Amino acid sequence: MALMTAQEVMDLIPNRYPICYIDYVDSMVPGESIVATKNVTINESFFRGHFPGNPVMPGVLIIETLAQAASVLILKSPEFYKKTAYLGAIHKGKFRRMVKPGDVMKLHIKMLKKRKQMGIVDAVATVDDKKVCSAQLVFIVAERQAKI
């Protein structure tokens, strides 16, 4: 059973279709760690061009998916609730395997540091318990912009 649904994730972070990639949150310890899931399907719009005949999820979108899971963790912290987390830096990014349609990508995020307006996380994406991507992500947290 999901701890948070896709709709609950969208209530917390500003991402929407077609660039909201978290299907659900499996588990979370607020301010410490989160595990979330992205079900990769052939219907993803990016597969039309990346790559025809050999569909592979672009690395930048794997990082984006990790960043969205990290945003949920950061914004569930009481001091950052109802704010927006912006990706400020990517350190030590490594890609180890391809992610293809039908894969279930698990996103494992651990909070490393939290300061007044920033957070640093260790992020790992896996498929079938095999590491596909890892990175250290730095976030800048700011007040949420009013809707126009």
From TrEMBL:
SUPFAM superfamilies: Thioesterase/thiol ester dehydrase-isomerase. It is an enzyme of class 4 (lyase). It is found in: Cytoplasm. It comes from the Bacteria. Its main location: cytoplasm. Its EC number is 4.2.1.59. GO terms for molecular function: (3R)-hydroxyacyl-[acyl-carrier-protein] dehydratase activity. InterPro entries: FabA_FabZ, FabZ, HotDog_dom_sf. It catalyses: a (3R)-hydroxyacyl-[ACP] = a (2E)-enoyl-[ACP] + H2O. The active site is at residue 50. Keywords: Cytoplasm, Lipid A biosynthesis, Lipid biosynthesis, Lipid metabolism, Lyase. Involved in unsaturated fatty acids biosynthesis. Catalyzes the dehydration of short chain beta-hydroxyacyl-ACPs and long chain saturated and unsaturated beta-hydroxyacyl-ACPs. Belongs to the thioester dehydratase family. FabZ subfamily. This is 3-hydroxyacyl-[acyl-carrier-protein] dehydratase FabZ. It comes from Limosilactobacillus pontis.
